[in-house]
Amino acid sequence: MKRSKSSRRWLDEHVNDPYVKRAQKDGLRSRASYKLIELNEKDKLIRPGMLIMDLGSAPGGWSQVAGRLVGENGRVIASDILPMDPLDNVDFIQGDFTDDAVFQQILDLLAGRQPDLIISDIAPNISGVAAADQASSMYLVELVLDMVRQVLKPNGNFLAKVFQGEGSDEYLKDVRTSFEKVVIRKPEASRPRSREVYLVGKGFKG
Predict the structure, then answer these.
(1) Using the 8-state DSSP alphabet, how is residue 3 labeled?
(2) Is residue 95 marked as binding?
(3) Candidates 3.30.1490.270, 2.40.260.10, 3.40.50.150, 3.30.450.20; correct CATH number of 32-204?
């Protein structure tokens, strides 16, 4: 099957990407791991012993990093509609976290505890229709924010990927109503031409 120009370009970029090569060498599941490593170095989000929730976690790039950083006394509760291979210090629930049955499984794992931090590198399946993809991505991060408002510990933190475009400014304003401080980051591991940015909310008002 002949590849389109854009998919060929993505493949070339991916094969030659220094972060992809580094991930393979470092035994990390994804180049996205370096985004979380960099964001954590900058914003000091993860400490040993923390309880973290990772929404949209497959293939596990962020859960792997978070699991290592929280250590044996901490825990990561990860969820995705796609399967994910096991990781140390990570409990994985496969399914749509907005589905009542899956949400209940998450609550059962939390067992009355509230996460210190909720992270999400979630993205929709890309259709190639820019307006539709943007709407899908905003819908997903809105669902993530709903979850944050239901379970995050007061004064807890939040980290999510947002694609800049229709609806992203309104989303930022909405997040600001729930957190003491909100900043936008563009990690070096994020491809320059990508519209993705990372929103860090600190001090959940609960």
Answers:
(1) P
(2) no
(3) 3.40.50.150
